UniProtKB/TrEMBL annotation:
InterPro entries associated with the record: Dihydroneopterin_aldolase, FolB_dom, GTP-CH-I_C/QueF
Catalysis: reaction(s): 7,8-dihydroneopterin = 6-hydroxymethyl-7,8-dihydropterin + glycolaldehyde
PANTHER family: DIHYDRONEOPTERIN ALDOLASE 1-RELATED (PTHR42844:SF1)
EC number annotated for this UniProt entry: 4.1.2.25
Family the entry assigns: Belongs to the DHNA family.
Cleavable signal peptide: none
Function: Catalyzes the conversion of 7,8-dihydroneopterin to 6-hydroxymethyl-7,8-dihydropterin.
Keyword Magnesium: no
Protein name per its UniProtKB record: 7,8-dihydroneopterin aldolase
Pfam families: FolB
Pathway the protein acts in: Cofactor biosynthesis; tetrahydrofolate biosynthesis; 2-amino-4-hydroxy-6-hydroxymethyl-7,8-dihydropteridine diphosphate from 7,8-dihydroneopterin triphosphate: step 3/4
Length: 118
């Protein structure tokens, strides 16, 4: 089963970074997320209760990330993947966390991780 619900280009401002100057400002991060989900169930019922609500996931991530304070994008990415697996009906998640403008000359830098429920 390769069906997915996705969230693309979710931008959230937060405290992130290892340098002193980064501890004093909020920076924008971008999230691209793919979550395994069987499309056939909500397709049969056409009911929001039967699907993975991408708005609910987005709102939860916005609340968590905007209140977070980490040094590395690796740490934040891991926490976000765990939150999705723990709190929503998702067995596998692919999460790309981009930090735009962190490196001169690069559009964005960051990490891509894939995690499954234990
Ligand atoms: N693999 C990583 N490398 C770097 C990170 C990071 O979070 N993961 N962070 C920084 C700085 O905070 C940088 O983003 C400031 O421009 C450097 N390298």
């Amino acid at each position: 089963m390769s069906d997915k619900v996705f969230i693309e280009g979710l931008q959230i401002d937060t405290l992130i970074g290892i340098y002193d100057w980064e501890r004093r400002i909020r920076q924008p991060l971008r999230f691209d997320i793919e979550m395994a989900f069987d499309n056939r169930v909500p397709a049969a019922s056409d009911a929001i209760e039967d699907t993975l609500d991408y708005k609910a996931v987005s709102k939860r991530l916005i609340a968590f990330v905007s209140a977070s304070d980490f040094g590395l994008v690796e740490k934040l990415a891991e926490q976000c993947a765990k939150l999705i697996l723990d709190e929503f009906n998702v067995s596998h998640v692919r999460l790309k966390l981009s930090k735009p403008g962190a490196v001169r000359g690069a559009t964005a830098v960051g990490v891509i991780i894939e995690r499954s429920r234990a």
